[in-house]
Amino acid sequence: MLPRLLFLICAALSASRAVAQEQQAVADEPLQAAESADAAPEPAEPEVPQPPKKEEEPASNPIPLAVGGAAALAALALLLGGGSKKKQPAALLLGPSNAGKTLLFHRLVNNEIEETVASMKSDEGIVDNKLLVDVPGHRRLRNEVTKELKRATKIVFMVDAADATRQAKAAAELLYEIFCQDSRPSLLILCNKKDRPGAKTPARIKLTLASEIETLHKTAKTMGSTGDDTQQVAPIDTAGKFFSFESHAPCACTFLAYSAREDKLDAVREFLLK
């Protein structure tokens, strides 16, 4: 009985060694032979089924939650605080494009003359402890003008006296929008570039602007009478008479011939400090 048992043990060891050698030989074969469609697959040794492993639940990462919470708080703070923060009251530099606003702004704020181009965004500076805002006059930025008007304490309004006829309509539209505001800031209307050839006098510019404002006012009244509320009617009552700055403007308007490049700044500073 013992010799037979020893024989069976040796046979099992030999079979196990043969299987191991055979598996090693298969592993050493070239990759091309293993991938050949004609090669017969080697019989695989049956695997003993293993009990399924219990999958571990991934631990939650607190970082995304923290970042998301911080972003939500920041958005809420912007909505409740910064987004609704009112702008500081300021004097405004207004007028059509190329009227000379930015040149005057740099003289007032920096006490220097700078060659400028038509600006496309507002710029702020301090003049005698007063905040001054240079507001672009381009038609496409009219919404920016409307926002800035809500904080206006004084308005320096500039018109190119050498190009007054062509600028008259754009200047009148801006003035009319100023007259539509609930506030009544006084205006200093500078007829700039008085030294240029063909520059119009303040009296002539006043009449030209009054004519354009009269047209706008009649159009607004007509639109209002037809029930169209898309255009606001300015608080102007001319009693059927032709519009004039002296009689019908809802705020004080002073016209002055000026050169933003050469004239002294005393008149403008005095107006801003009143």
TrEMBL record:
Its main location: endoplasmic reticulum. Residues 21-42 have a biased composition (Low complexity). It is a single-pass membrane protein. Keywords: Endoplasmic reticulum, GTP-binding, Magnesium, Membrane, Metal-binding, Nucleotide-binding, Receptor, Signal, Transmembrane, Transmembrane helix. GTP binds at residues 95-102, 137, 192-195. It comes from the Eukaryota. Mg(2+) binds at residue 102. Transmembrane segments: none annotated. It is found in: Endoplasmic reticulum membrane. Residues 1-20 form the signal peptide. SUPFAM superfamilies: P-loop containing nucleoside triphosphate hydrolases. InterPro entries: P-loop_NTPase, Small_GTPase_ARF, Small_GTPase_ARF/SAR, SRP_receptor_beta_su. One of its GO terms (cellular component) is endoplasmic reticulum membrane. PANTHER family: ADP RIBOSYLATION FACTOR-RELATED. Belongs to the SRP receptor beta subunit family. This is Signal recognition particle receptor subunit beta. It comes from Pelagomonas calceolata.
